[in-house]
Specification:
It contains five helices and eight strands; from the N terminus they run H-H-H-E-E-E-E-H-E-E-E-E-H. By secondary structure, it is an alpha+beta fold. It is globular, with a radius of gyration of 17 Å.
């Protein structure tokens, strides 16, 4: 019986850890073609949700992948492209502990605090390392949860998009 519980614990731990998104996933998404990123996300249980035009030119797009619907286990991964070139990726979670794990990982990798500000009900915090920027957005959702967005962007490519 003890062996059975041990095997169940190891299986659950392995499965849960394998599904967690990390900085490596953000960086992979930023530095690889969308097809490779999509394959990696599907392997982690994500499904393609939609592509949204972020401006009227229809060159700036956000391609979304989701997992677990709209409950507290909701998790999404977005790839931001401009003229089909990837300039950023975002992980969205409703779990504080997942957000905190990513923030600790970012700090361990040498990202330095650039600043923070509030806009409306959201808090935005930026970290920087070389030509990479991390922005963390924390704010309420319409369904009563707190949402945590962790975005990794290539600074030079982002400037091309928004200048």
């Amino acid at each position: 019986m003890k062996t059975l519980f041990t095997l169940l614990f190891i299986s659950c731990s392995t499965l849960c850890f394998a599904q967690r998104l990390t900085y490596k996933d953000l960086y992979f998404g930023l530095t690889h073609p969308i097809t490779k990123t999509e394959s990696q996300l599907v392997a982690k249980g994500f499904t393609y949700a939609s592509t949204i035009d972020l401006d009227s030119t229809q060159h700036n797009k956000n391609r979304m992948y989701i997992k677990n619907g709209e409950d507290i286990n909701y998790l999404s991964f977005a790839v931001m492209t401009f003229k089909n070139e990837i300039y950023g990726c975002t992980i969205t979670t409703l779990k504080l502990e997942e957000s905190n794990k990513l923030i600790e990982e970012i700090k361990t990798l040498g990202f330095k605090l650039k600043g923070s500000e509030t806009y409306g009900k959201n808090l935005y915090t930026q970290y920087i390392k070389g030509q990479l920027e991390i922005e963390i957005q924390v704010g309420p959702t319409e369904i009563g949860y707190t949402m945590y967005n962790i975005s990794l962007r290539d600074i030079a490519k982002t400037k091309e998009v928004y200048n």
